[in-house]
Each structure stands twice: as C-alpha cells, then as structure tokens.
Amino acid sequence: MLVVNSLAKSYTHDKQSLQAVSFKAAPGTVTAVIGPSGAGKTTLLRSLNQLISDDAGQVLLDDQDLRQLNKRALQRVRRNIGMIFQNYNLIEPLTVLENVLHGCLGAKSMISGMLSLYTTAEREEALALIDEMGLSDFAYTACRQLSGGQKQRVGIARALMQHPKMLLCDEPIASLDPKSATLVMQTLRQLADAKQLIVIVNLHQVEMARDYADHVIALNQGQLVFDGTPDALSDTQIQAIYA
Ligand SMILES: Nc1ncnc2c1ncn2[C@@H]1O[C@H](COP(=O)(O)OP(=O)(O)OP(=O)(O)O)[C@@H](O)[C@H]1O
C-alpha cells in the first residue's frame, strides 16, 4: 500500500510546487495523476521514490517512510519501484534483451553489473517478459529500430525485471500515436491486475484516465483538487481542474 501524507515541495522560496498532497494507492490499482502543465505531476512522481527530496510529509510504502531512510536503505527500497519515462530512457544501440536485462542491475554486484554478467535464469526471465510484451521477434533487435510503442513496452519489461511493488509512469504515452498509447495503457492495467502492482501514471489525456484508472487524483498549482473514481470526475470538474 502507498500512503502519501501532506507531501510538500518548493524548488524556490516564492512558490510551492506541491502543497500538502495526501492520497492512498492500493496494490492491484491504477492511479492516474492529471492536471495542467506545471501542476506538479512530475514533481509528485519523483518525490514518490525520492528522486527529488521533498520538504515535508510522508511517503509510506508498506508502512515504511521513504523520507526517513538513509541512502543505502533507500537504494534497497527503490529496487521495488519501477520507473517508466515518456522518452523511454533506453540505450538505443543495445538490443531489446540487453535493455531489459539492465532492469536487474540494481540487484547485482558492481562487478557483475559492469561486466554485464547475467545468469541463465535472468536471461530466461528477460526473454519471458519480452514475450509477455509481445516483442519476442525483436529480442535481438537494437532498440533504435523499434517504434515508440515498442520502445515503451521494452521500458515496461525492463522495469518488471526489478520485480517491483510499484510502477511510477511519467507521461508514458505522451509521445505515442493513439493505437500504441492504448496498447501501453492496456498493458499497465493488466499488470496492475495480474501482478498486484501499485501503478501511478501521470497523464495528459483525461479520457485515458477515465478508461484505465481505478482512481484519479488531480493537481492544480501543486494542490490536490480532486481525489476519487473516474466516474466521479464530471465535465465541470475537469474544466475546473484545467482552468
Ligand atoms: N528543477 C526545478 N527548479 C525550479 N522549479 C521547478 C523545477 N522543476 C519543476 N519546477 C516547477 O514546479 C512546478 C511543477 O512542475 P512539474 O514539472 O512537476 O509539473 P507537471 O505537472 O509535471 O508539468 P508538465 O505536465 O508540463 O510536465 C512548475 O511550476 C515548475 O516550473
């Protein structure tokens, strides 16, 4: 379970990018974070795994407050948190398999990681995930030859190599055509259900939030202005969120 309590962040003294944001997200659910540009969506997502340090509040993942952990303990917990990025963050000249295997680097010794020494079990798991993402024909293809939708599914497979409890997805479909975007959202939905993941996804497309999320939170100028189910999100509320 993810429990966020009164999370606050200011990058500069004159402006709060997150103002006392609180919400909960359960395993097996997709939470969509919506709101206009500059509302604080990326700041919130990056605070959830402490990629940026926030100023106040709590981020409890299974009752453990990530804000209270020392560097080493935080690194351990981060292995349970997968990240999906708008621009995929793949190593383009490397193959799909190599990129997916990079997902287990955090759990390997420095030497094994540097020498890319992977076990047979890790390779088999990576190939199974590539298959699960519908990319088995591309396992040995360089990522630069893939479409955006395929690259994003490589990014998801790489995150799954970490055996995450939680997936943080920062605008994962912003660069994709509608068909690829739908496939990525369907994949995230299925993963939440099948693997009981906590999926948090920043979205610009309210329709996608309505179609795939269990829970929507909306930010405007760093404040939580909506927290509820997609059904409860009326057109009037959407207008107010984006006002
Ligand atoms: N490194 C930074 N230094 C100073 N201000 C920042 C920094 N990063 C973000 N901000 C400010 O914090 C606020 C929230 O930004 P954030 O990127 O979280 O919004 P967002 O909702 O993700 O926007 P977008 O949808 O455009 O990606 C904005 O006003 C932004 O200018």
Task: Compose a concise summary of this entry.
With 243 residues, the chain is an alpha/beta fold. It contains nine helices and ten strands.
Structure description:
This protein has 243 residues and is α/β, with parallel strands linked by helices. It has one domain (24-49, 82-242): 3-Layer(aba) Sandwich (Rossmann fold), CATH 3.40.50.300. Helix content is 35%, strand content 23%. It contains nine helices and ten strands. The protein has helices at 41-48, 71-78, 96-101, 110-114, 120-132, 148-160, 178-195, 206-212, 235-241, and strands at 2-9, 18-25, 29-34, 56-61, 64-65, 81-85, 166-170, 198-202, 215-220, 223-228. The longest helix has 18 residues, at 178-195. The protein starts with a strand and ends with a helix. The model has no long low-confidence stretch (mean pLDDT 93). The structure holds adenosine-5'-triphosphate. Adenosine-5'-triphosphate (ATP) is lined by residues 11-12, 17, 35, 37-43. Keywords: ATP-binding, Cell membrane, Membrane, Nucleotide-binding, Phosphonate transport, Translocase, Transport. Residues 2-243 form the ABC transporter domain. Pfam families: ABC_tran. GO terms for molecular function: ABC-type phosphonate transporter activity; ATP binding; ATP hydrolysis activity.
Tell me how many strands there are. 10
Q: What overall form do the CA principal axes indicate?
A: globular
Beta strand %: 15-25%
**Helical stretch tally:** 9
How many domains would you count in the coordinates? 1
Superfamily at the CATH H level? P-loop containing nucleotide triphosphate hydrolases
Query: What are the bound molecules?
Result: adenosine-5'-triphosphate
In whole angstroms, the N-to-C terminal distance is 32 Å
Question: Which regions contain 5 or more consecutive residues with pLDDT less than 50?
Answer: none
Structural class: alpha/beta
Mean pLDDT across every amino acid position: 93
Strand order of the largest sheet: 6-7-8-3-9-10
Biggest β-sheet description: 6 strands, mixed
CATH top-level class: Alpha Beta
Radius of gyration, CA atoms, in whole angstroms: 18 Å
User: Helicity, in percent?
Assistant: 25-40%
Task: Tell me what the CATH architecture is.
Answer: 3-Layer(aba) Sandwich
CATH topology: Rossmann fold
What are the secondary-structure elements, in order, as H or E?
A: EEEHEEHEHHHHEHEHEEH
